[in-house]
Amino acid sequence: MPNTLVEWLHHLETLHPVGIDMGLERVSLVAKRMGLLERPIAKQVITVAGTNGKGSTLAMIDAVARAHGLRAGTYTSPHLLRYNERVTVDGREASDQRLVEGFQQVENARLQEPSISLTYFEAGTLCALWCLANATLDIAILEVGLGGRLDAVNIIDADVAIVTTIALDHANFLGNDLEQIGREKAGIFRPLKPAVLGSQSLPPSVLESAIAIAAHSYALGTAFSHSAGETVGNPWCWHGLNADGSTLSLDGLPDPGLPLDNAATALQALALAGVTLQLNTVRKALRTVTLSGRMQWVGQWCLDVGHNPHAAHYVARRLPAPPKGGRQWALIGMLNDKDADGVIQALLPSITDWVCVTLEGERGRSADELAKRITSLGGHVYYCADSPAAGVAKLAKQLAPEDRVLATGSFFTVAELLAMPLPQAAPRAR
């Protein structure tokens, strides 16, 4: 067997003939062999599905739960810099040793007769679930990777299930029908358990799916809501429900720098999971919550992993104008299964100059192809680079102190930039 985490991750890439293979039969069999389905992995399990907003919702649930003294664990994907980011307990990333132990457990179970083939994601999910199940948790928060009904995470029954948003993404696997995508995401709902609908723009199929299995639905705008000042950064108020139907209100909440729909959804999910929300504790948690790669500022650079039109519209609304006389650059690299035109159109009014970068790999998209799309939509492409790092190097020679750069389009684009020092223009001499 492999010995190190790096060796295990290389090994996982060889286990299955395709990278994504939707279905629960294989992963469920291995989970049973590992004993993961014999008892709950935590006292409460919250599962989060959706097109956008999963990561920020999970991060806020985790932060608020831990602020209330609960022992919380999370599973997310993908990672930005380290695989260890995918599994946390009490806010700390899983160690290499713990993940290696988990992968050994997965491999031992997988190789029992008859042996079972697993994808990289399926093996990683089982490893994460083993780590969480052996951490004696009050609450586990699980992020669905793709879809919902047939995602490996869905082998675990959620005590509270969340669907954040529904938009077109992963069309090769989920299709272009929002109603069908909604049904797939809603596949994480369970009979007689709370189903939290975290957007007022969900297709009807999400609520219909909850009703069909007698899940207890709690929708944003009806069961719970938020109200805020007119400008970004103003305090806001949350109104929601306990599991017994009694009303809750928290006011004067700080802006977490993440979508308030997701913040309100996180609070509603925690209330339904039985957490008694304390105003000052919630305030403290929301002030300190962080999420890498989501509107993350590094000097003049804003890094955001948004890779579909819905996410790009949110970024465009939140992106401040550069100082007077400055240019708003965009360094963009995208995968070939994403809606590049939709992302570009959402960002176009905010961007003065574009730097397109190539992402390598089977799903990669070339900078030249991105540039053609931007130009055809009326944008100005300044440069095409062979990689995100090469795009940064080119921009380093052009940045003025008043300029700002949005780096976006993919986890791969942002991850490469996070792993390197980003150039900052020197202040002008007076």
TrEMBL record:
Reaction(s) catalysed (UniProt annotation): (6S)-5,6,7,8-tetrahydrofolyl-(gamma-L-Glu)(n) + L-glutamate + ATP = (6S)-5,6,7,8-tetrahydrofolyl-(gamma-L-Glu)(n+1) + ADP + phosphate + H(+); (6R)-5,10-methylenetetrahydrofolyl-(gamma-L-Glu)(n) + L-glutamate + ATP = (6R)-5,10-methylenetetrahydrofolyl-(gamma-L-Glu)(n+1) + ADP + phosphate + H(+); 7,8-dihydropteroate + L-glutamate + ATP = 7,8-dihydrofolate + ADP + phosphate + H(+); 10-formyltetrahydrofolyl-(gamma-L-Glu)(n) + L-glutamate + ATP = 10-formyltetrahydrofolyl-(gamma-L-Glu)(n+1) + ADP + phosphate + H(+)
Domain of life per record: Bacteria
InterPro entries: Folylpolyglutamate_synth, Mur-like_cat_sf, Mur_ligase_C, Mur_ligase_C_dom_sf, Mur_ligase_cen
Pathway the protein contributes to: Cofactor biosynthesis; tetrahydrofolate biosynthesis; 7,8-dihydrofolate from 2-amino-4-hydroxy-6-hydroxymethyl-7,8-dihydropteridine diphosphate and 4-aminobenzoate: step 2/2; Cofactor biosynthesis; tetrahydrofolylpolyglutamate biosynthesis
GO molecular function: ATP binding; dihydrofolate synthase activity; metal ion binding; tetrahydrofolylpolyglutamate synthase activity
Cofactors demanded by this protein: Mg(2+)
UniProt protein name: Dihydrofolate synthase/folylpolyglutamate synthase
PANTHER family: DIHYDROFOLATE SYNTHETASE-RELATED, FOLYLPOLYGLUTAMATE SYNTHASE-RELATED
Ligase as UniProt keyword: yes
The protein's role, per its UniProt record: Functions in two distinct reactions of the de novo folate biosynthetic pathway. Catalyzes the addition of a glutamate residue to dihydropteroate (7,8-dihydropteroate or H2Pte) to form dihydrofolate (7,8-dihydrofolate monoglutamate or H2Pte-Glu). Also catalyzes successive additions of L-glutamate to tetrahydrofolate or 10-formyltetrahydrofolate or 5,10-methylenetetrahydrofolate, leading to folylpolyglutamate derivatives.
Keywords: ATP-binding, Folate biosynthesis, Ligase, Magnesium, Metal-binding, Nucleotide-binding
